[in-house]
Amino acid sequence: MDISDLLNNLNEPQREAVAAPPVHQLVIAGAGSGKTRVLAHRIAYLVRTGEVSPQGILAVTFTNKAARSMRDRIETMLDMPVRQMWVGTFHGIAHRLLRSHWQEAGLPQTFQILDSDDQHRIIKRLLKQMELDEARWPPKQIQWFINGQKDEGRRPDHVDHHNAPFEEQMVRIYAAYEEVCKRSGLVDFAELLLRAHEILLHNKNLLDHYQRRFQHILVDEFQDTNTIQYAWLRLLAGDNNPLFAVGDDDQSIYGWRGAKIENIQRFTKDFPNTRTVRLEQNYRSTGTILSAANALIENNSDRLGKNLWTDGSDGELILLYEAFNDLEEARYIVNSIKNCIDKGIPRNEIAVLYRSNAQSRVIEEGLLRSAIPYKVYGGMRFFERQEVKHALAYLRLISNRNDDASFERVVNTPTRGVGEKTVQMIREQARAYNITLWQAAQQLLDDKQFTARAGNAIQAFMYLIEEMAVETKDMPLHDITEAMLKTSTLIASYEKDKSEKARMRVENLAELVTAARQFEHEEDELSELDSFLAHAALEAGEGQASEYEDPVQLMTLHTAKGLEFEHVYLTGLEEGLFPHRMSMDEPGRLDEERRLCYVGITRAKQQLTISYANVRRLHGNEQYTQPSRFISELPKEYVQEVRIKRQAAVASTMQIETASSNGFQLGSRVAHVKFGEGTVTSSEGDGAHARVQVNFDDIGSKWLVIAYAKLQIL
After folding, report:
1. What DSSP element (H or E) covers 188?
2. pLDDT, tens only, 52-84
3. Nearest Cα residue to 188 out of 117, 246, 240
4. Is 530 marked active-site?
5. pLDDT single digits (tens) 639-682
6. Is the pTM of this model over 0.90?
7. Of 103, 210, 136, whose CA–CA distance to 497 is shortest?
8. Where do the domains of the chain lie, and which CATH numbers do they carry?
9. Active-site option among 278, 517, 561, 603
10. Which is the catalytic residue, given 14, 15, 25, 35?
C-alpha cells in the first residue's frame, strides 16, 4: 500500500493525525471513531515515508489481542513482516526489556513471572512464617496493597505509613514479600513495570540506548495508563522522541484499578508543543444515540472536550422502561429480546449490560426459561461463581454432612488453620475404611490422630456446621442462607479485602439470599433447601452457550468497553446501583460512573433500551429505588418512555388465562398457608403451567404455580 492509498481511505481529522510532522501528538478518539485504524496507519505512514525504520518504533497497547490486531494491520499495509518493531502490551514490553537486561535489573537470568494466584499463595505462606493471623491480615488485601504501591512506583522504604500501626505492619509484610521474591528469582506483574522503569531511571547508558532506538513511541488507550506506566513513557520519550498518544478521557473507567485520568488531561503540559487532534465522526451508532451520549457526558467537569457525530441517520428513539421490580424488568427484557430475534437480529448482536455482576441472575433465569442461548461475556453464570459455590457448599453440608466435595471445598474456606496435610490424612482415612470425609474426620478426632492445632481446627469446623444445622432448622430458605453467610464468616472474609473484585463477591453472596427468597419451591418430596440446591446445580450444569449457538451476550459495563452490538439493553439505572452507592463518597468517582454510562450508551449501533425498577431485591434486601440521575441527564427529545402504567391498566382488566376462573387479577390480595398475605404483581404462562408473582408482606416476591400454590383470594 503506497502513501496515497494509506491516506485516501481516511477522513480529514484521521489524515491530519496520520500525516502529522514528527512532534508530540494527542489524538482524542471518541467511541467508534477509528482510533486503532489511525494508530496502525500512523505507524505504516512513518515507515513508508522513511521517517523511521521498523526497529525505531515502539507501539504499546493494553491487551495482547489489541497488540496482535495492530501488528496484523501494519503487516498488511506494509506488505512485510514487522518482527523488528516492538509492538506489545506494557507488561509484555517490560518483560522483554528485563529479559534483555537481567543483570542491570538485578535479576537471575532464569527469573520467573508470578501470576496473581501464585502471588496470593506466596503471601499466604509468608503470613504463616510471620505468625500473622489471616483474619486480621487478609492475603487479598495485602496483595492489593503491594500491587497498588508498585503501580505508584513505591518500594517499601518509600511508603509513608504515618507511624500508624496497621500501615507499618503492611509495609513490613511488603518488605518481607520483596525478600522472598528476590531469594526465589520471582517477578510479579506489577514488578515488571516498576523494575523496567527503575533500570532505565538508574542506568543512563541504557536509557540513552533506548531513547536513541525508539524514535517514535505510540500508545493506545492512553486514558487507562497508571502512574508507573506514564513515568516510563515520559522517560523513554525524553526530550527528542515524539509521543503519539491515542485515547478518550470520556472513556476512562478504570480508576478503581489504578488508571489515572490526569495523565491524559495533563499531557499537553508535560509534553510541550503538542498537537491535539479530535476524532469525532462516529462510524458505529445512530445520531440519536450519539446526541444522548454527548448530552450525558457534558455533565462532567475537566473534560478535554469533543462532540460525537455521524453522517448516518438519526435512527430510533432510545426506549426507557420503568419496571415495578427487578423480576418484571428481566421479563420485559427477555420478551423484547424475543421480538428482536423474531425480526431477524442475530442473537450475538444483542447485549444486556449491567453495573453489578449480581444483576445477571434474574436475567439469566428468564433467558433459560425462554430457551434463549446466552453467554456471560468475560465471566461465569451466577451459580458457577467461586463465592457462590462456596456458599452452596456450606448449605449442602447443612443438609448432608457426607457431601465430600462440599467438605473439601470449605473445610478451610475462609482459612481456619486446616492445612493440606490434615486434609490428606482425612482422605486416606476415608479411603482405608470406605467412609465419607466427615466420618473419617470424626474417627481421627476420636482416636486423637491429629496434632492439637489441626484437631482443634477440624473440631471447630465440624461444630460450626452442626451449629448452623441446628440453628437454621425450620427457618425459611432465605433465612437459612443469610444465617449461613454470617456464621461461616464467608461474607466477612471478603469484606476485609478492599478490592473491586472482593466487593463484587460480597454483592454476589448477598444476591444469593435474594435468589433464595425468590425461589419457588413446588410442593414435592424434597425440602425447600434441597430443592433449591438441586435448582442451583441444574442451572450451573446447563453450561454456557457456545459461540456457534449465536448466544445473546450478558456482561458488566466495564467488560463491554471496546465492543459494539446492534441492540443494547442498559439495565438497573437506579440511584445507588448505577451510579453505584460507593461513588457518592469518593472524589471523582461519580464522574467515572457517568463515563461508564457513556461507554454503555455508545456500545449500541441501532437501538438502545434503558430500564430501571421501582423496587429491587438486590444484595439480599428489597429496596425502593429512585431512577438514576443519568436518566434525567438524557434530553427528552431522544427518549421514548414505555409506559408501564398503561400496560398494567390493560393487564389488570385481563384475567390470567387459567387463573381467571379463580378470580386472580393483578392487584388481587391473596393468602398462602406458609408465606402469609400478599399482592399479585405479575403473571405468565397458561394451562397447567400458569404462574403468578406475589409480593408477600413479610418475605417479598415469589413466583408460584397456581395449580399447586393453594392461594386464597382475600
Report:
1. strand 186-188
2. 999 999 999 988 788 888 889 999 998 888 878
3. 117
4. no
5. 999 875 434 433 433 333 433 435 577 677 888 887 888 888 77
6. no
7. 136
8. 3-100+194-280 (3.40.50.300), 112-184 (1.10.10.160), 293-381+549-642 (3.40.50.300), 384-532 (1.10.486.10), 648-713 (2.40.10)
9. 603
10. 35
